[in-house]
Amino acid sequence: MRKRNLMFAIIAGLAFACGGGEKAAESSEAAAPATEAAAPAPEMSLEDKYKDDPIYIKGIEKVKNSDCATCHMIDRKIIGPSYADIAAKYESTEENVSMLAAKVLAGGAGVWGEVMMSPHPALSEEDAKDMVRYILLLKK
Ligand code: HEC
């Protein structure tokens, strides 16, 4: 009895797999070249990986309300280093969070290159720390 159930499950699974394959082939013929349909699922983005973390939720809100995005992207260097590169460089310790928050407030250059980060005197130290905790969370 158990063996027959197993057989049934295998046959059902095969039928399902074949059906799905045919469908994908049909639709890819009708639309774009088949390469797109056959491509493996993209790697999970850092946003998706951390979006439910309270540190993420608290930090991104404050980052969005400031000008950080002018010079920083999560995964790509633009004017400033990417958040992922910053997260790779520093452990998320209280010491590093304080040091980097002070740098966000005061601005500065010399760690990643000669380009200068503008100072952010209007931010509170607490806001800067929440932003830095969010950035240091974004490890690959
Ligand atoms: C005018 C462009 C600019 C803006 C706006 C900006 N940054 Fe930066 N940021 C930089 C540059 C350039 C560096 C690299 C500085 C260096 O090499 O020391 C940097 C570096 C950093 C670092 C790493 C510092 C270090 O010493 O390793 C952190 C953290 C950071 N930025 C956070 C922020 C946050 C948070 C905001 C928004 C409040 C922000 N930045 C806004 C350009 C900018």
UniProtKB/TrEMBL annotation:
Keyword rRNA processing listed: no
Keyword tags: Electron transport, Heme, Iron, Metal-binding, Signal, Transport
Signal peptide residue numbers: 1-24
Ranges of residues in domain Cytochrome c: 47-139
Pfam families for the chain: Cytochrom_C
InterPro entries assigned: Cyt_c-like_dom, Cyt_c-like_dom_sf, Cyt_c_ID
SUPFAM superfamilies in UniProt: Cytochrome c
The name this protein goes by in its record: C-type cytochrome
